[in-house]
Write a structure and sequence with these properties.
Blueprint (H helix, E strand, L loop, with lengths): L17 E6 L3 H17 L7 E6 L5 H12 L3 E9 L5 H20 L3 E8 L2 H6 L1 E3 L2 E2 H18 L3
Parallel strand pairs: 1-2, 1-3, 3-4
Antiparallel strand pairs: 5-6
Helix pairs in contact: 1-5, 2-3
Bound molecules: 5-nitro-6-ribityl-amino-2,4(1H,3H)-pyrimidinedione.
5-nitro-6-ribityl-amino-2,4(1H,3H)-pyrimidinedione binds next to strand 3 and helix 3.
Amino acid sequence: MTVKVVEGDFLQGASAKYAIVVGRFNSFVVESLLEGALDALRRHGVAESQITVYRAPGAFEIPLLAQQVAARTKPDAVIALGAVIRGGTPHFEYVAGECAKGLGQVSLQAGIPVAFGVLTVDSIEQAIERSGTKAGNKGAEAALSALEMVGLLQQVGE
Ligand code: INI
């Protein structure tokens, strides 16, 4: 008996259309996430004409912008990028929680992958580590996840 396995790769999503929704807050970190995401898409064959970047004020606003972009421009995937840094304030919990919850809703509502490249970290040091230094670049990881999911969804039901 041969079991059919359906799995994405990084090839099929190359001709798809991607929207990157970026929160400007903590921009010194977020711009590195954006560079990482763009670099990952380009190096996997996605043309720049297939990518549009949208900027929101902060992570709290990312879900609404992502929802509107998904509804009005019909991308194949959204890549959400931002940085929520705790810094000892309870504001963190609300902003990070609403951003994650909202993006999950957008994904299911629109029926497209929404990659979660929003850092939720305790310190600026952790944010720097995850935006292109010793812990990799979470923007690039999010872009790869979007690419893989686009290819995977193309295969479902084939
Ligand atoms: N927005 C972020 O993207 N990251 C943060 O760390 C952050 N903190 O800590 O306050 C943050 N706040 C702004 C928030 O996203 C909204 O833009 C603001 O509350 C206006 O609605």
